[in-house]
Amino acid sequence: MASISVPNPAPSPTEDAESIRKAVQGWGTDENALIEILGHRTAAQRAEIAVAYEGLYDETLLDRLHSELSGDFRSALMLWTMDPAARDAKLANEALKKKKKGELRHIWVLVEVACASSPDHLVAVRKAYRAAYASSLEEDVASCSLFGDPLRRFLVRLVSSYRYGGGGVDGELAIAEAAELHDAVVGRGQALHGDDVVRIVGTRSKAQLAVTLERYRQEHGKGIDEVLDGRRGDQLAAVLKAALWCLTSPEKHFAEVIRTSILGLGTDEEMLTRGIVSRAEVDMEKVKEEYKVRYNTTVTADVRGDTSGYYMNTLLTLVGPEK
User: Fold this and answer.
1) Residue 221 annotated as lining a ligand binding site
2) What's the entry's take on its domains (predicted)?
3) 13-69 belongs to which CATH class?
């Protein structure tokens, strides 16, 4: 369930574009007005505002925001204002350009883009990626030097997939593949067997995977995510867990993303922004519930404690009130 609130009726796209223009003209910028307008509009409404703005003022809305704003506030508001598919294409491209080899938090981005939304959205991301970077997402993942096989094969399969989006499931298949997954992940001290994992997690529908994982829990007395947690230092296991959570329980993954971004010395603003911006129109209410249960605090409290100024206000607007 989305967390943003939208006025009803909302101003027309032309009225919003004119209000934004007023906020960015003259001596200084009315940052609160920008948050109030853009932070309370859906993706479809923001797209209409962008079209209206460019038609009225012969410049793109994103270009204007970039020239007027700065820092983490600019990054968050621009990322939010972007078309969701173009946003995910940008996040994936930036993750592939990171210089730290095998950094899990950067690999998470690719998993989220591939697994945490609908099959049609992933197709839209791949199209947006080709349009923006003159190459395919699949090719760039396959040629990225940040990771090797079998992790590379797994990521390529994830970003190139087109899963069945319906609710139909095969119980016999779930039994068989729960057993295959168990055989692949149980060996302590042994490498995780990648081929079966790549095939099952990279191709099955979300509904089918949910039934398979439940069967795994029934057969073995614990969830596969708990088993994967026991394989400390195994990067493929960590990425597999993230993929399974994004496919079947994305609120668990994004609660962990937000929490990870604020733990330790300093805040990872890129991660925090991504975790909130990408889920505000999808399931942020579920993320907030999961966060409260797992960490005994709220997303709102942690955002207030680790951020400030217009950046904080933007994130809190997207998070919405706690219940």
Assistant:
1) no
2) A pair of annexin repeats may form one binding site for calcium and phospholipid.
3) mainly alpha
Q: What is the pLDDT of residues 172-208, one digit of tens each?
A: 999 999 999 998 887 655 556 667 888 899 999 999 9
Residue 4 CB partners (closer than 8 Å, separation 6+):
39, 40, 42, 280, 281, 284, 317, 318, 320
Q: Global pTM?
A: 0.94
Q: For the chain, what's the residue count?
A: 323
- Does the CA dihedral 251-256-257-261 come out positive or negative? positive
H or E element: which one contains 177?
helix 171-185
What CATH superfamily is the domain 171-248?
Answer: Annexin (1.10.220.10)
Kindly list the distances between the CA atom of residue 272 and the CA atoms of 115, 257, 264, 280, in Å, as whole numbers in the listed order.
Answer: 19, 7, 13, 12
| 230 known member of a binding site | no
Distance CA 14, CA 17 (A): 5
Amino acid at position 106, single letter: H
What is the C-alpha separation between 246 and 256, in angstroms, rounded?
Answer: 11
Task: Give the amino acid at 316.
Answer: L
* Percent share of the chain, pLDDT over 90: 80
Where, residue-wise, is CATH 1.10.220.10 in the chain?
13-69, 84-159, 171-248, 260-319
Q: Residue 107 annotated as binding?
A: no
Q: What is the DSSP string of 19-34?
A: HHHHHHSSSS--HHHH
Indicate the CATH number for domain 260-319: 1.10.220.10
Judging by beta carbons within 10 Å of its beta carbon (0-12, 13-18, 19+), is residue 35 exposed, middle or buried?
buried
What would the mean pLDDT of 124-138 be, rounded to a whole number? 97
* Three-state SS at 192: coil
CA distance 74 to 78: 6
CA distance 288 to 1: 10
Asked whether residue 26 is marked as a ligand-binding residue, the answer is: yes
Say if residue 307 carries a ligand binding annotation: yes
CATH hierarchy code of domain 84-159: 1.10.220.10
Q: For residues 39 and 2, what is the distance between their CA atoms, to the nearest angstrom?
A: 13
